[in-house]
Amino acid sequence: MNNSYHFLKKMTIVSLVFAGLSAASLCFAASLPVDDTPMKEGMLRKLTEKTDMTEEVSNRDADRNGYLTIPLPDGIGEENVLVTTDDSEQKIKIAISDVPVYFYHRNFLSGDMKNIQNIRYGYENQVAKIELDTNGIFEPDTVFENGNLYFGLKEIQDVYKMVAAVDTGHGGSEEGSVAYGITEREISERCAGKLAEEFEKQGIKTYFTHSSDVNADIPTRIQAAESVSADVIISIHTNADSRTRVTHGIQVVSQEENNEKAAEMAGKLAEALDLSLAPVDEDNVTPEIVSASSCPVYFIRLGYITNKAEAEKMASEEFAEKAAETITASLLETDTATASGNKTKSDKGTEK
Ligand SMILES: [Zn+2]
Q1: What are the residue ranges spanned by the domains of the chain?
Q2: pLDDT tens, 206-220?
Q3: pTM for this model (two decimals)
């Protein structure tokens, strides 16, 4: 199994087609190191509801401003708590191991419920599961103090420099262009995986616009990026041409207002990857994801898969790594206007 595929599985993937897919467990649950036995409906109970089990056995220290207070049994701490986020569903799951049964029927949650719409509780195999429905996408913030878990929600844009949606070319049974036994899809996914790693390293929150096993249509991909308020979409493809020997080189396409940045990125990639710049073809049609998205898109055609030397080059791990590093550096250097907290969609051009 190749690395990028493995990485794709581990990443949180945004996709609207997700819900009905058995693949969903591949993508989301893979980030859960514990067994993710689903909560049984009958065990779910809103924590605010009192029941005949109600007997407050502990009255812990005060709430913390801006945090939800989750009391913990004695001896239970950070190592027992696993928090996972499901951004596409706007849910956060908190699993706490070694909790006595009905603990949360006697020890209530309190504190700040801002941005939390609903809380559900389940218990299975000595693991208490608390599920929060949030009214947006947040980064969990946990503080362990006074025998409590203080649970806060940080705005994504306050935690990360930028939010990026990585769009891999094709997917599902659709491989894109194929030449010399190499597929566009495998090149795209390898690069996307490396790009996501590099983005996360550099403090860019990363989502994929679709999972590896579906070839989502363009509106779905754009909607996935919009649902996480992405600052930028990076779409990765390869090029193809019937003149296999002569046509080669890299190309970056973006919306007109980003042309300068796109050219800069292409130049940097050509240099780092030792590629030429692809000839600009008169009848090149702007890719749909570029023309249809209001969020900046950098549509990168890494090279010509129909050119043998380029195809072989693009298929290497080293190529993917270099491409990822260069795209990231280029984006961080040149794309300050789209950095989070500075979304000036309506007043483009005011920044110099
Ligand atoms: Zn493509």
Answers
A1: 36-155, 160-340
A2: 999 998 888 889 999
A3: 0.70
